[in-house]
Amino acid sequence: MRLFEVQPVAQVFRAIDQQFSPLVHQPEIVSLEWAQGRVLAEAVTAQEDVPGFDRSTVDGYAVRAKETIGASESLPAFFTRVGEVRMGEVPSRALHPGETMYIPTGGMLPQGADAVVMIEQVEEVDDLVNIYRPVAVHENVIFRGEDVHQGEMLLPAGVRLRPQEIGALAAVGIDQVAVVPRLRVAILSTGDEVVPAATPQLRPGQIRDVNAPALAAAVQRDGAEAIVGGIVADDATALLQRCSELLHDADLLLLSGGSSVGTRDHTEQVIASLGEPGIFVHGIALHPGKPAILARCGQKAVVGLPGHPVSALLIYDLFVRRILDRLSGHSSLPWQAQIPARLTRNVASHAGQSDYLRVRLLARSDGWWADPIFGKSGLITTLVKADGLVEIPPEREGLREGEGVAVYPLQ
Ligand code: AMP
Ligand code: MG
Q1: Ligand 1 pocket test: which of 207, 261, 264, 380 has the largest number of ligand atoms within 8 Å of its C-beta?
Q2: pLDDT value of position 2
Q3: pLDDT for 329
Q4: CA of 189 relative to ligand 2 center, distance in Å
Q5: Residue 226 Cα, ligand 1 centroid: separation in angstroms?
Q6: So what's the pLDDT on residue 264?
Q7: Which of the residues 239, 246, 247, 272 has the least number of beta carbons within 10 Å of its own beta carbon?
Q8: Cα of 252 to ligand 2 centre, how many Å?
């Protein structure tokens, strides 16, 4: 029997970082509407000031701040009201000494004014306005260019566009951006027993393809494009043929099933013949998911995932995401943030490998608790119940109830 040489998880992470570097593809132009989650290919420079004029942040009265000095409940400052500022319009006139003008939130400050007194702090008597509190220069005003200066770099290249970045782009009048093209990830399932998920009636011994839809969803969640390549039987020639076709148009090929060393497992041999330099990991010291294969063909990545859906998704989350990060040149940060919690019970594990425990997160008065979910790696519903994963490191033979752990959230 052939045996593979398992590598520790940390070593596999390092190997991935060494093997892969960002792919350079022509930027793609997308409208802001569709830019959510995309990565900016080029820095964006603001062509205008935001806001474009001095604006009030409150409903109130525009004044010269120095004319309110010393104003108090017992001795207000007196002003003459000379009209009001209309939203979206330039004020009808400038303010002269002793004058004030009503101004709504967001209205343009009239010339001569340098502050706004909140409506709650004034009393209006006909055209007279009594102000009961002094304001400082610039109080309750956002100045022209205070948010963004014309000519300033608004966003650097490499930023992943969240709603707030989309908002900032809209604020300077940009409606199209150059983004990094999505990585293309081809997905192929293998196994004589695997049939399309929508097959009406299974024959005895057949199973539905769980991995392809689950992996396609993971790929899309991570901002890449999924190319679903179907199912190939356990036949080395057919598998090689299909893999070559798919890899031609993809940046990364994900194969699931047949990654171990059984007699029907051809994945290793096929991946090895896809291109140079080839396989750099076969076997990872972790559970579940040990028989994973990682390879590089030119600049592209090929990953052989174990057939069990839980193992396949775990290997995806731990390693394929990291490859995607390397190939795209930016990181999927949410995955890296961990939630500190305590374990609800004792858990045994194997020394010498990283055991990944599926856990439910429980909110208790003293913080988060991680409640282990047990079950074989063939059981997809164990992941459905899980909020996150906890790594039991190789040097440990288990964890104790109450022990502090870091939970990797499952998105
Ligand atoms: P293998 O990695 O080929 O040894 O497969 C391990 C287990 O995962 C076997 O029980 C397979 O039937 C199962 N399996 C393989 N591919 C899939 C798939 N695409 N969806 C669901 N289960 C699968
Ligand atoms: Mg198989």
Answers
A1: 207
A2: 55
A3: 83
A4: 9
A5: 20
A6: 78
A7: 272
A8: 21
Distance 216 CA to ligand 2 centre (A): 19
Using CA positions, which residue lies closest to atom 23 of ligand 1?
307
pLDDT at 1: 44
**Nearest atom, ligand 1, residue 259 CA:** 2
In this prediction, residue 245 carries a pLDDT of 98
Encode pLDDT of 265-283 as tens digits.
899 999 999 999 999 999 9
CA atoms within 13 A on the CB side of 272: 9
Task: Catalogue all structural domains in the chain, each as residue range(s) with its CATH number.
Answer: 9-24+181-328 (3.40.980.10), 28-50+146-179 (3.90.105.10), 55-142 (2.170.190.11), 339-409 (2.40.340.10)
**Which segments in the chain show pLDDT lower than 70?**
1-3, 331-336
pLDDT for 373: 96
- For residue range 159-175, list pLDDT tens digits in order: 999 999 999 999 999 99
Atom 13 of ligand 1: nearest residue by CA position: 307
Per-residue model confidence (pLDDT) at position 203: 98
- Binding-site residues, ligand 1, Cβ < 6 A: 189, 191, 193-194, 207, 209-212, 256-260, 306-309
